[in-house]
Amino acid sequence: MTGGLGGVMEAVSRGARGAPSWREGDIVGILPGYDRNTANASVDIVIPTGMQRARNVLVVSMADVVLAVGGGSGTLSELALAWQLGKPILMLELAGGWTSRFGGERLDHRHDLPIQLAYSPTEAIAQAKELLEVSRHEPGHIGSGWRRPPE
After folding, report:
1. E strand or H helix at 11
2. Alpha carbon 36 to chain centroid distance?
3. Which H or E run includes 127?
4. What's the predicted TM-score (pTM) here?
C-alpha cells in the first residue's frame, strides 16, 4: 500500500507486482486527489480520497509496518503519524532523505523501539517481517503505541 502516485511509490508498486506471491488486489494506492487516472499503472486497487496531504493518515493507519524510502516533508509527516500511532518504522538507508537523519533514533518518549534501519531492499523485507512479530498495542488514541512483548 502506497500513496499510489509516481516515483518511489510507483517503484514499490511495480516491485510488488513482480513478486512471485503477487495476486490481483494486493497493491493499494491511496491517492491525494479524486482523479483515479493519476494512479501508477501497477496499482490494483485505486482509492481516490480528495484529501490531499491528509490522506497520509490513511496511508499510515492501514500499514502494518511503515517503510520510508528517502522522502521529503510528506514522508516526514508520515513518519510522525506512524510514530504516534505506534506503527513499526523501517527506513531504507540507501535512499537518503530522512533515513540518514532518523534511522536508529527514537522520535520522542512514546516508544522504546527505535526507528529501524535497513541497507538493502532484501534486508528491509526481512526486517519488516521481524517487526510484524514484535508485540504492540493498536492505539485507540494518540500517545499509545508499542508494548513490550510478554516475558
Report:
1. helix 8-17
2. 21
3. helix 121-132
4. 0.81
φ and ψ at residue 105, rounded to 5 degrees: -105, 165
Largest CA distance in the chain: 49
| Residues in the chain, overall count | 151
Summarize pLDDT for 100-126 with one digit per residue, the tens: 788 888 888 877 788 999 999 899 999
Task: Extract the residue ranges of the chain whose pLDDT is less than 50.
Answer: 143-144
Any idea what DSSP says for residue 32?
S
For residue 14, the number of C-alpha atoms closer than 13 Å in the C-beta half-sphere is 9
Q: E strands, the chain, where?
A: 28-31, 45-48, 66-69, 89-92, 116-118
- For residue 68, the SS3 value is strand
CA-CA distance, 100 to 1, in Å (whole number)? 23
Apex 97 CA angle, 95 and 99, nearest 5: 75
